[in-house]
Design goal:
Two copies of one chain form a homodimer. Chain A has 118 residues and is of the alpha+beta class. Chain A has four helices and three strands. A three-stranded antiparallel beta sheet of chain A has the order 1-3-2. The longest helix of chain A has 25 residues. The first copy, chain A, starts with 14 loop residues before the first helix and ends in a 6-residue tail after the last helix. Chains A and B meet through helix 1 and helix 4 of A and helix 1 and helix 4 of B.
Chain lengths: 118, 118
């Protein structure tokens, strides 16, 4: 359970899901780690709080798989930071995972809210 | 990954999700293991194929937590089988997990398909 807090309103993200959300966040342009975490938190309306450790492990894992590249740069508040960018393989992977996610969510929805038998 | 086949169209279910789907299946009435697996497969339109081992481990886990009860009975094709039924605690747990699932799915949806910035 990489991303978890004691706040019961927040939800733990499983590894594969975190990877997908990182890839999605980078699809709109490069970002540094803290920026990625902030975007995920903001866009999920504070449902997901990504902890530092899980995030960097995930970024490392994705970089090793050539799904993203990392380069040193300067952040908006003038600190040196690694900026991550999606590779073409990363974009492909995002598409695959997104498709799989929609399929999973749809199938779970079918079970949770089945059509009434007619 | 408890439920998985080599068919890429099928999706692996994580443990917590499988538990939720079992509880949901039993919400409409008691069923034996094979019946639960069949219902999950049918209602998910063959997206989820629950393997025997994962299913019985999950049923055991849920029974130990008093979320369901098990009783010997006779199946439609006249075999002895354990019939599982939801307990009040199981019904409560289903509600909690379903709420959490919808929240998770919604938050992921917000990130995958963000509102265009205006």
């Amino acid at each position: 359970m990489p991303t978890q807090t004691s706040d019961p309103d927040r939800i733990a993200l499983l590894q594969g899901t975190l990877d997908m959300l990182i890839l999605r966040t980078l699809a709109t342009g490069p970002a540094h780690g803290q920026g990625i975490a902030r975007l995920i938190q903001q866009q999920s309306e504070d449902t997901f709080l990504v902890d530092h450790g899980s995030l960097y492990l995930a970024l490392q894992r994705l970089e090793e798989k050539d799904l993203l590249t990392a380069e040193w740069g300067t952040s908006a508040n003038n600190r040196r930071a690694r900026f991550y960018a999606l590779t073409p393989a990363g974009r492909e992977e995002l598409l695959t995972r997104t498709t799989q996610w929609h399929k999973l969510a749809r199938a779970i929805g079918l079970i949770l809210n089945p059509e009434p038998a007619s």
